[in-house]
Amino acid sequence: MSTAEIIARCEELYEDTTFAASRAWKEAAPGRKVVGFMPVYIPEEIIHAAGMLPLGILGGGDGLEVIHGDAFYQSYICRIPRSTIELGLTGRLDFVDGMLFPSICDVIRNLSGMWKLMKPNVYAKYFDVPQNYRDDIGGEYYQREMQELRHDMEKLSGNKITDEALSNSIAIYNQHRQLVRDVYAMRSDEPWKVPSSEVYLLMRAGQVLPVEEHIVMLTDYMAAAQEEDRPIRDNCRIITCGAFCEQPPLNLIKSIEMAGCYVVDDDYMLVNRWLMEEVPTEGDPIKNLADAFLHHSADSSAKYCDTQEKVGQYLLDSVRKNKAEGVIFAAPSFCDPALLERPLLAAKMSENDVPHISFKYAENSGQMQPIREQAGTFADSLKLWS
Amino acid sequence: MKCYIGIDLGSTTTKAVVMDEKGEVLGRGITNSRSNYDTASRVAKLEAFISTRLTLFHRQLEGLAGLEGEKIDRLLFNLERHFRLELFLEQLEDLHQTCAENAGDLRYPGQKEKICGVLDVAFARLADKLQGLFGPGVVRKSDFFRDLAGSEYMNIAEETAKEMGMNFDTLINIYDKSIIEVENRPPNADMEGKFLRALTKVLEEETDLSVDPADVMEAIKKVLDLDLEETFVVGTGYGRVRLPFPKEHIRSEILCHGLGAHLMYPKTRTVLDIGGQDTKGIQIDDKGIVVNFQMNDRCAAGCGRYLGYIADEMNLGLHELGPMAMQATKTVRINSTCTVFAGAELRDRLSLGEKREDIMAGLHRAIILRAMSIISRSGGIDDEFTFTGGVAKNEAAVKQLRELVQENYGDVQINIDPDSIYTGALGGAEFARRAVEEA
Amino acid sequence: MTTSIGIDVGSGCIKTVLFKTDGDNYEWVARRNDKIRQRDPKELARRAYDEVLEEAGLKESDVQYTATTGDGENIEFSTGHFYSMTTHARGAIYLNPESRSVLDMGALNGRAVKMDEHGKVLTYRMTSQCASGSGQFLENISRYLGIAQNEIGELSKQADNPEDVSSICAVLAETDVINMVSRGISAPNILRGIHDSMAGRLVKLLRVIKANEGVTFLSGGLALDEGLMDSINASMVKMKIPTKAVNHPDSPYAGAIGAAIWGAYRYEKLAEQGSLAIAS
Amino acid sequence: MNTATKPEAIKDASMLKQKEMIAGNYDALTGAPETGKKIVSTFVPGNLNELISSFGLLNNLPEINAINNGMRKQSGGMIMDAERGGHSEDVCTYVKADIGMMSKGNIAPNGKVMPNPDLLLLSYTGCFTFMKWFELLRKEYNCDTVMLQVPYTGDGVITDNMRDFVVKQLKEEVIPALEKTSGVKFDIDRLRENMARSAKAEDDLVWVLESAKNVRSPIDAYFGGVYYIGPIFTAFRGTQDAIEYYQLLRGEIEQRLKDGLGPITPEGDMGEEKYRLVVEGPPNWTSFREFWKMFYDEGAVVVASTYTKVGGVYDEGFRHDPTNPLESLADYCLGCYTNRNMPSRVDLIEKYMNEYQADGLLINSIKSCNSFSAGQLMMMNEIEKRTGKPGAFVETDLVDPRYFSAANVKNRLESYFQMVDQKRRSSRKTA
Ligand SMILES: Nc1ncnc2c1ncn2[C@@H]1O[C@H](COP(=O)(O)OP(=O)(O)O)[C@@H](O)[C@H]1O
Ligand SMILES: Nc1ncnc2c1ncn2[C@@H]1O[C@H](COP(=O)(O)OP(=O)(O)O)[C@@H](O)[C@H]1O
Ligand code: SF4
Ligand code: SF4
Ligand code: SF4
Fold first, then answer.
1. Ligand 5: residues whose CB is within 6 Å?
2. D84 assigned to some structural domain
3. Which of B19, B115, B120, B323 makes an SS bond possible with B429, Cβ 3.0 to 4.6 Å?
């Protein structure tokens, strides 16, 4: 298969606000269930081990007409909860048997309660994670929370989740995470071969497909991309940061590239890359997941940084590792976590002489001209003078 | 006779309704809102009284043997036409004079004479051209002097300036300044004289009336002699706090819109009003009492003014936007409804090669989508549903609304009255009537 | 010697300049500034291009590099495109060598750029999506008040008690202004109020980019509005920005000039590398 | 929870007492460098005042400073300073006012310099913004920090796991940090004494708030309420002063009830009680008076509010419990209003609507605060559905004067009152 074919399939999945692929999975066998989750991270393994499909819900993008969702939110609240509500109210998520709302910010937190009010018969849970990284404090708390989730998932699916099944799921997700890392590494090495918009679409597909299927897709894509010859452009290398929750419109991702920037790292769908190292498949799986979370997980604004020195270090490491020439802070309008953290990250970048710029977007932004202008000027300045 | 008046001082237009003691509407008047709220309400009221006289003429003429319905209508139609033409020419002349005075401004030293020369030519052409607007059967682009004179002035001034070697921008600047002065001048009060002169002209033209012109004249005079008393006035609308009325004469526009919609369509349960800078969703009960409402918040995105910006950008009249959008073959998806960026969005799309019509359809859809959210916020749509406000005059907006209502709420009776822009004023007039008659 | 043309496609006007560059010597040969007024920008740009050539007495083949900036990305006959903050920075240095920051006030967005003495962009900031306090807004209001654009500055300077224009939303601010008129506030005070509120937003951008050296060059059409310039300077003092805002009669051309100069620079660089093919 | 401006016209004994307490506290804070006292900066919801003061530490609350600056019309400039420093227009203005205040030299309301804190104690309850705020403060002050994560009660209940987690953090993180800063060993008995005093004051506070159940309420539970909750929410919980303040206050309200008086307003006793409202959401501080006036001018009394529960929901029976001090502190933190899930918030409001015989629900939606605001429109729908009473929605901000549009708010309120009125009249007519 060529990259174009794979990407066409991804695009189709991306544009489909009715989740036909996930519905098809559910209908393919009796008793199958689907559990939706929002950004930024959820231990998908627990859902997977119960034989259910974890479905990543990332808002409605720029293709969804939001009517009822807007009715529930003031203008100064970001877009993702409204389009998610719209998806819920228009029956597009009726096939979803449970919804998980991870701890990312107050908006998603409150959305969990709204979901309970809106759909009293659907399982909905706010899934809290520790911001204390001591094994005996945050770790124990988190393990118990995961046990509770495991229990709930057993009830919802009707399947017992054995330690063995869970370890098995961890192994599959380990493989998946490795492939995701490979795709990112490939883009960082040869960005002209792997355009950001394609990486993005590829990762989005992973939100709605079963992990096994996505593993195949990633493998195929890399093989195909390696084969294809694409011209090298005179672009600079940048990292985008701040879009871990509400997703930018595809046009924005394309615009950045068009304006002369190769994106060599991003934080779009962190759930794929949250656990940064292989999770052991021996021993207590819940404990293994907790350890990975506490000690080897990605950084994002939704997480507490327990020491001053660590603030921004994750981003800086990525700049170094990916030889990025600059950072573009692109955050959704009204996104408190991203926007509050930005000055801290920006300061860290400045201290280390990493050029950076910042702008805001909404998942349905239509005007790309200011974006192109800002990204373009950034590219101009990196190109003309460095 | 007793007249109850409701005045709705909106952000774009000011509307007045005159009602009699039985609650029957006698007249409606509208003008563009302007910086002088007093003048705006005075003009609207005056217009409503003109329309009241026309209603009363009708009633009076019905009593004349030999004049049946269709003939009365024609007679009154022509009467109004002549009347309006005179009014219009009077204002045009005023504008001319004012422009001439403003040409003496310090910024154009020593140019006054030359400018006046150009103005004389331009205004003569303008008067000539615009007379045609009042010919029989001509549809005018707008009801307001400002728009009628303005759009044509641009064209004529450009061409005249070129011919006579004058700076076009100077002419525009003088015009911009003068039109405001003219607008804010209270209109000449001699309505009676104008009506009579107009009538004389009509009677000369209409030779097959099979009724004695003297009788007609007398009937009209009788109405003109009638004293129209302003028994009670209620003000509402965005600018109501600035109306020169005591508090008991002021009602919130929400209540007035609810009641007005109820009067027009008693089965209404949901009202949508899209005005210049606000959009309201109102739920009312079987007596027209408001049970819930929602308005747009602090951002004026997607309100009527949005269309105004678009019209300015395209150099079109508001009346022309809807018909253009109706030509669309598809609807371009537009997301930002920020009023100020409307023009930019439009240019963006045009440069991407989209067709104007399709973009227009998208813009209209965007407005209605926003309105749908507001309705949804206020509690959704219940049968029957009434759409009011200036934007209800726009057929493309109405079309999108019908589609979206169908998609989201199924079959609902949708009421749109050609006079829906007067809904708030109607409610106000009824409040005025009740304040006296049901006290 | 390199001949280059810079075309700045704005939302209101298209500015076109022709430059001859020889080392560090720049000769500004021809210029045009056309109001778009509902016309097709692409056609207009082409016409302007032809006209500056004619004015300079040159042929198309005499031009080595045609650079677009602003919204000119898809003008087909250009050699390359530079983004507007890159070009405004360079244009500012050309018009006033003391410049170390630029404030560009376009019809919709405001931009602040900080650069070094060679016009190299160091940082910049643009206003966001919400168009409060934009040039467009000022234009609408002045039409409403019946005031010509070149008259605004003068009037604004006569203000004795500027009115606070507080609304965040440009549309609601419009009604604010109408209310002011009805309250009998004088046009100078209203205009100055608008200027102050615009200046506040713009100067905030300067603060963010930490403009602290040389002078702040005002570019774009609004730069000629002396009233706005006063407000900006007052606002800069209030916000403790150590530079001073200056304009230049040719401020509207800054973008086009920058494009022409960078175009020449790029041409020479590419010629050096022998990779001229990429340039077209 | 105001502390700065008071209704000037009439001063009851309780008001004078509160004023004195606040002034004393600011003097203690600004005087710390001389007295050698140590300062802990912490946030209002879920604050651990009893614990902090058991170590002899002083408690500084950045939100309260922001409120004070808001009421004194200082916050606008501070927010702009913060925005100029790179903070987004979109985020919570408490944070920006705080950051802006630092850049202005951290002057306390008494005009003296507020010393830097010795310890930052993040009691992270009910709001994510606190976490980032805290990180920003840490960068600024570069002092010791400790965090207490309070899990969100997403399912509407406090689970054992949550409580254990909080207690464990108290024992192993917070108390050691406080010991280190103060140099004082943790003394559980001092904590118990403080908590016993808290409970006593809390009893009287609840009595005062519930006095609004009287038709012809003697208090305004929102505009007045923010003054009443001041001591309990801030640095005074657990002190003898607080006990005395609430005794005084209770006496005064008892007297008002006897005299058949309505609430006290900045312009004297309120006239006829025409509308009884429940209010959800924090007030606007920059135009507090103006906002309040829009209510009492129309005869609207707020009989219950949720904002007065951000520092603890006491009217549902919770009291600080000296017999189980740490568990009780955990329950306190977990039970604050904004740490409750949406359905519980709706239930609480519904209960208020019924028990306080309210005519309607007014939501003051605050731009800054997603914790409060995200979802309020659904809350309103739900309450309307359950009670059949109309809701109204106005939008303002906490301390950003740019987001208070008086004409807009007034228009909505007027329309709302006229609507309630019209509705009432028609139901009277048909009845
Ligand atoms: N004839 C018309 N055709 C189409 N749209 C119109 C027409 N007249 C007014 N409008 C629209 O209605 C808006 C004004 O509505 P209106 O109800 O008068 O507002 P307001 O009450 O705020 O003054 C205008 O901004 C315009 O978009
Ligand atoms: N002399 C002047 N005084 C004030 N404003 C002016 C003057 N000349 C031009 N302008 C303003 O500048 C605008 C054009 O500026 P420009 O920077 O070319 O905008 P853009 O690049 O967005 O088209 C005009 O629309 C007008 O508002
Ligand atoms: S975009 Fe930001 S504010 Fe909005 S839900 Fe996501 S994390 Fe929260
Ligand atoms: S300028 Fe546009 S986006 Fe901003 S508040 Fe006004 S209408 Fe809304
Ligand atoms: S978001 Fe709300 S709860 Fe959080 S700090 Fe701001 S005002 Fe307080």
1. D 92, 94, 127, 129-130, 338, 368-372, 398
2. yes
3. B19
Give tens-digit pLDDT for D344-380: 999 999 999 999 999 999 999 999 999 999 999 999 9
Q: Phi/psi at A264 (nearest 5 deg)?
A: -105, -10
Among B283, B292, B297, B335, most A C-beta atoms within 10 A, so best to mutate, is B335
> A20-161 maps to which CATH number?
3.40.50.11890
Indicate whether B25 pLDDT > 90.
yes
Residue D392 alpha carbon to ligand 4 centre in Å: 23
Is B287's Cβ below 8 Å from some Cβ in D?
yes
Strand B279-284 to strand B290-295: parallel, antiparallel, or no bridges (unpaired)?
antiparallel
Instruction: Give the CB-side neighbour count of residue D397, counting CA atoms within 13 A.
Output: 25
* Dihedral pair phi/psi, residue B110, rounded to 5°: 70, 10
Residue D77 CA to its chain's centroid (Å): 23
Tens digit of each residue's pLDDT (9 = 90 or more) over C184-232: 888 899 889 888 888 888 888 888 888 889 999 999 888 889 999 999 9
Asked whether residue D314 is domain-assigned, the answer is yes
Identify whether D8 is part of a domain.
no
What residue ranges of chain D have pLDDT lower than 50? 1-8
pTM (two decimals): 0.85
Distances (CA, A) of B262 to B18, B290, B394, C267, D420: 17, 10, 22, 72, 18
Please give the number of the atom of ligand 3 that sits closest to the Cα of A332.
Answer: 1
Query: Strands across the sheet with B290-295, in order?
Result: B290-295, B279-284, B270-274, B385-388, B414-415
Question: Mutation test of ligand 5: which of D372, D376, D397, D403 has the most ligand atoms closer than 8 Å to its C-beta?
Answer: D372
B408 part of contact set with chain A, CB < 8 Å: yes
- Chain-centre distance of CA A122, in angstroms? 24
Domain extent for D156: 13-429
Cβ <8 Å between A125 and D155 = yes
Query: Which tens digit of pLDDT belongs to each residue from C241-263?
Result: 899 999 999 999 999 999 999 99
> pLDDT grade, residue B106 (50/70/90)?
low
- The H or E element that residue D265 is part of is strand D264-265
Query: Per the structure, how many domains does chain D have?
Result: 1
- In whole angstroms, what is the distance from residue C4 CA to residue C64 CA? 6
Task: Give the helix/strand (H/E) hosting A368.
Answer: none
Least confident residue range of A169-178, A266-275, A360-369 = A360-369
**Residues A354 and B328: beta-carbon distance below 8 Å:** no
Any alpha helices (H) in chain A, and if so which ranges?
3-15, 20-27, 44-49, 68-71, 80-89, 106-118, 140-157, 163-189, 196-208, 211-227, 250-258, 285-295, 313-321, 336-351, 369-385
